[in-house]
Amino acid sequence: MKIAEAVGGHQTHGFFMGFYIQAVGLTKNPRLFYFTARSNTMYPTLQQCKSLSSTYNRIPIYKQLNISHPGLLLLLKSFINNGDCIFFESAKQNKKQSRFSFLGFNPAQTLYFAPPHIVICNSSKTASIPCSDPFGFIDEYISRYHSPSFKRFGSYNGGLSGYFSYDLVNYTGHLRQLIQEDTLHPLMVLHHIDDFICYDNKYNTYYIATCLYTDTGDIEAEYYKAINKLQLLEEDIIKTIANTVMPYLPAYTDECAIDFAQTPQQFMQMVLQAKTLIEDGEALQVVLSMRALINEPVDPYLFYLKLRQVNPSPYMFYMKHGNLTIAGSSPEIHVKVEDNIATLRPIAGTIARGKTKSQNNINKELLRANEKERAEHLMLVDLARNDLSIIAKPGSVRVTQFMQPEDYSHVIHLVSNVTATLNDGIGLTDVLRHTFPAGTVSGAPKVRAIEIIDQLEDRPRGIYAGCVGYIGFNNTMDTCITIRTAVFSPQCSYIQAGAGIVYDSIPENEYQEIVNKLKALSVSLPFAKTNLTVKELA
């Protein structure tokens, strides 16, 4: 069956999907929001759309939305009870990086990969298609749509948003032998978004958008249909916000029960096994992970509200798909593509934060001077350069930031930035395929490290260490590595973290690194236990 036959019409609407990037604080009055003067200004104009239709077959239409802060956060709470959603925010306060926020809804299609099939759902049908190459399938899917980018509204204008499991590495073509796969959850879930809200935090202005498709040939009729739709959506959104009350978190609670899937001794024995393989020349570095099971009922939304307080990060996300929810605060880009420039941002090398500013500065210098941490980081910068060189124009790979210590909530990391100009004929899924999974969660050389991980770890990684983000129809992509993340489902709820093992690793130190990385997640769990009495503000 061809994709076009399976997915049906692009204007069919099914599940709800939300996408949100930007730090939003909770108001003390959960009903405090403002309505601005109604604006009927549309962008682009009808005449501009007619001109754009000669090049593009999907054109976003924007209208100023007459709500103000904290509309998006209230909408998240409301809509997670009504269907699937995904929510992204950035804790960065740098206006250049986090000026825009995006909240998408009414996905035209939901795609998920449960080998050996890709399933495509919309409100009228579900199609199951045999698939051995999910990356190729997505490449063919996005090739059907072409959208312009309007920089005044940010780089996101819908597209495919969701997650890619670590175990999708089996379908990249990189491996000599396949690894075990997660059978509890789909290996990939993506939503096709045409309706979304754009928030410009520089000017505290909201816009609502929908997409006009040119395939009918009557641009004027489609334009006025889009305007009518935007007005109806605006009315629904205002009603939703008015009827939503934001809960608050308890000031203190007891701990939440979690059980590590391995004892410290078992993990340290695994480290010793990896070191032996490294000493034998099998690899330079292997990133081993450890899972902790969540053994009490937890409200993922409340968990996320606490997590965003204790561990603000550049990539924060909340995604719900059926009875599966993932919530995370990732510090690290997987890969980003904008204006034909691909960016990787390796993060490797870790030390605990100091309790005082002086101690924190001392710890930064200790980290920068640590030969083991520097060697680990350098290996992963080289791996990032090699990954990009395969898809880059010759001579365009650049290290634009090298081994800088950066503060996170509980730890300090060494961070570098690697960029490249994409070669002719390289598409977004080519970039994703050739960089997947990230070297910082696998090791070096990457293929052998992945094989060793599969040999030593006792279960598939699944969602952990894959990526979350979007692939746009305007030739942009932004994804983060799925770390500092909790997974909630009836089958298995857990948190997970890893540590990079090299020839001189000390097992006790590697175990402590994992404990430090999990701290932000583990301290957030008790505040979300469902046996707590969660009060609402009056």
What features would you describe in this structure?
This protein is α+β, with helices and mostly antiparallel strands. The chain folds into 2 domains: 240 residues, no CATH class; 256 residues, Anthranilate synthase (4-Layer Sandwich). It is built from 13 helices and 25 strands. The strands form 3 sheets. Strands 5, 6, 7, 8, 9, 16, 17, 18, 19, 20, 22 and 23 form a 12-stranded antiparallel beta sheet that branches. A hairpin with a 4-residue loop joins strand 6 and strand 7. Helix 7 packs across helix 13. The longest helix is centred in the middle third of the chain and has 24 residues. The N terminus and C terminus are likely disordered.
Topology (SSEs and partners):
Layout: H1 3-7, E1 42-43, H2 46-52, E2 58-65, H3 71-79, E3 85-89, H4 95-98, E4 100-105, E5 109-114, E6 117-121, E7 126-130, H5 134-142, E8 159-164, E9 188-193, E10 195-200, E11 205-213, H6 219-242, E12 258-260, H7 264-279, E13 285-294, H8 300-310, E14 315-321, E15 324-330, E16 333-338, E17 341-344, E18 347-352, H9 357-369, H10 371-389, E19 398-407, E20 411-421, H11 428-435, E21 443-444, H12 446-456, E22 467-471, E23 477-481, E24 485-488, E25 494-501, H13 507-524
Antiparallel strand pairs: 1-2, 2-11, 3-14, 4-10, 5-6, 5-9, 6-7, 8-9, 8-22, 10-11, 12-13, 13-21, 13-25, 14-15, 15-24, 16-17, 16-23, 17-20, 18-20, 19-20, 22-23, 24-25
Helix pairs in contact: 5-11, 7-13, 8-13
